[in-house]
Structures are given as structure tokens and as C-alpha cells.
Amino acid sequence: MPYQFPDHFLWGASTAAHQVEGNNTNCDSWVMENLKGTRYKEPSGIAVDHYRLYREDIERLAALGLNSYRFSIEWARIEPEEGRFDEAAMGHCRDVLRTCRNLNVTPVVTLHHFTSPQWLISAGGWESEDTPARFARYCAHVMSQLGDQIPYVCTINEANTPIGIDKVIKQFQQGGSASAQVGMNMDFQEQMRNYYAELSKAFGLPPQEVHTFLSPRSEEGLHIIFQSHVEARAAIRQVSPNTKIGLSMSLFDFQSVPGGEEQAAHELHEEFLQFLPYMEDDDFFALQNYSREIYGPEGLIPVPGDRERTQMGYEFYPEALENVIRCASKHLNKPIIVTENGVATDDDTHRVAFIDQALKGVAACITDGIPVKGYLHWSLLDNFEWQLGFSKRFGLIEVDHQTQKRTPKPSAYHLGKIARTNTINTV
């Protein structure tokens, strides 16, 4: 199948700091992974040792033919105690960016990817009215020193994810079943109450006052997340005016059968449309998609038994990406960068097929004039998938968790060939 993409298209892959770097000991997730009765299958530990091996990982990305790397900077490393910024951690980030520049790889940087400093959670976390100012201060510190090396920055990864978590909780409370949505294998009820008791001890707060980014959200808490984006954007513009700023959102392709149209429209509003005012002044939209959801008169329809499921429980449906791009473009008149799209599977031939179908949809959108500026596959490396541990395989590059040996999969070479065939220019 021929691909038609513009010059300067960003071809790349993505990672998140906590999922690949290892020994992120000052963040909230580290606490939760190591608690008695933890809901995590296993702790992250050294993850895939990317904090030490980042140079060869980025070299591998470039050698494949990719020209862009999306990664995150870890707030808990930069500001391990409130108001104290770690210059060694900043130096590490500076060298990651230098490595990208030397290899002609365009960095797309995310400043918050799910994990937060432990001190922030003890200070009220993502329900505290002080969090937007604290987050903006951190972003300003990073971008004042590194912004001239960062052409694209996402303030927050998947700012709407807490909505999906609330849905999973409600499904369990109502006695229903839920797939491993949003990467969290959530088993609540009595075990969860015991877990939160341990969590409250760790952060010195009552259980109901422990508010990590991935905790259930109040309406005010949702506002705090998006207001953090607004204040961070303003702070970044002051210190790094040439950096393009966006927000990352995770969206399903919301579909319906007769009788489910109103419910599907409600889900789109709840997860995307209600937040459009917060993004009006952004420079681009960072879009993330993995599958679809289909709604009927009774609500969400389970994935039919004859449809392939991924390791995450999603329906294998790469066609969703085109639909979500078209939907986002209709409602938000901004350039789009696909910052995550991929599939968890041990069968790499399915990953190749997923990439082909997803890119066919991206190309169709571009042909129709939608300004899609890049496709960054999730993920570069097999990594730590939060509560599910290391068992889910999203990577273009296989990682032996025992030896840390890297082996590019056929899908890595496949995506690299597509990139080289079309363009390897960077922005």
C-alpha cells in the first residue's frame, strides 16, 4: 500500500519516564508499588534501565529510520523536595536532548506522565488548589533551562484519564465486569480498602485525601488538572516562547448501534468536548488512541467473542485512529501529533498489521487536508505497564527484563522502512 505523507513529518516512538527509566524512588508510584498489599503485579525496580541506556536506545531508534522521540521528564527527579531542584537530574535531561540533536532526532517532551513527587501527594495532590501553581513552577524551571532544545512539549499526558478510571470503579461497584481499561488491572472492594489504609500511612493523610493523578476525581479535581495545563502553558511561553505547546488526551473511537447514539455522544462530550476551552490557546493537540467503544441502548457493548482482543483487553481495531483524528479535527482546529498508538501483543505480525492499517487512516486524513504532523508509536520498548507489570508487550524493541538485552522486532524495521520511504526530514 502506498503511503503519502508530507515533508517534515515526525516518524517516531514514545516512552514514559517511570515505565522505562527505573529507580524513580521519589515518585508516588514507587510508594504504591512497594506497599504491603500493593495492587501492582510487581514493582518497577530498574524498569528497562533506560536512565542508563538512553543513548543506545535513541541510537537504535535513529538507526531504524525514525526521526522523532517522545519521552517524559520526571517531576519527582527534578524536584524531589518542594522548592529544591536537582541539577544532576537536569543535567541528565540535557544530555538526553543533546543525544537527540546529535542524531537528528526531534524530541517531543512530556512534562507529566502520570507520576508525581511524593511531597505533592502529601500536600493534597491533584485535588489541591495549589497544584497548578506548583506544576507551573516546575515546568518553568525545566523549560527555562532546556526549552531551546525542545520544539514540542506536552504539559500533561492523558489529562482525561481519571474519567476512565472513574468508569472502571463504577463498573465494579455495580457488580459488572471491566476489561483492563487505561492500563490498570483494578480489583477494588475489600482488598482495595486495605490497600488505601496502607497508602494513607505512606503519605500521612486519611485514605480519602490521597489524590494521585490516577485517583478517582471530583469535578474540582478535573478542573485542577486542566488548570495546571493552562498555568503551565503561560509559564512556558514566558521562558521558552519558541516551543510549541500541547496537551495529550486519550480518546476511544466512540461508536454506536441504533439506540446508542445519545450515549456515545455523551461519552465524547465527557472525555473530550467539555475540555475544549482549556485547549483554545494551545499550538497543537497530542492525540492518543488504541481502540474503539461501541454503545447501545443499554450502554457499553462488550467486545464480541469473535473479535480479536489485545493483551490489554481492547478490541484489535487500528481503524479507530483515523476516526478519532477526524473527530478531533472537526472540534479542535489545530495541528495534530499522534503521540501514542499501538497494540499489546506477543504476535509481532499483528503489530505490523496494526501499524499498516493505522497509517492508512492517517494518510487518508492528511490527503483530506487534516494537519497531522506526526505519528509516534507506543512504544519504543517493551516496558513496565503500571499495575500489570512487565507482562504486556507494546514495544517495537523487545527487552529481556533479566539481561536488559534489546532486540528490535520486525515491526520496528517495518515502521522504519515506511519512515525512510516517505521522509526522514525533521522539523
TrEMBL record:
Q: What is this protein called?
A: beta-glucosidase
Q: What is its EC number?
A: 3.2.1.21
* The protein's enzyme class: hydrolase
Which PANTHER family does this chain map to?
GLYCOSYL HYDROLASE, LP05116P
Q: Which residues form the active site?
A: 340
User: Pfam families recorded for this chain?
Assistant: Glyco_hydro_1
Q: Name one GO molecular function term.
A: hydrolase activity, acting on glycosyl bonds
Q: Which organism is it from?
A: Paenibacillus illinoisensis
State the family it belongs to: Belongs to the glycosyl hydrolase 1 family.
| InterPro entries with a match to the protein in the record | GH (IPR017853), Glyco_hydro_1 (IPR001360), Glyco_hydro_1_AS (IPR018120)
Q: Which UniProt keywords apply?
A: Glycosidase, Hydrolase
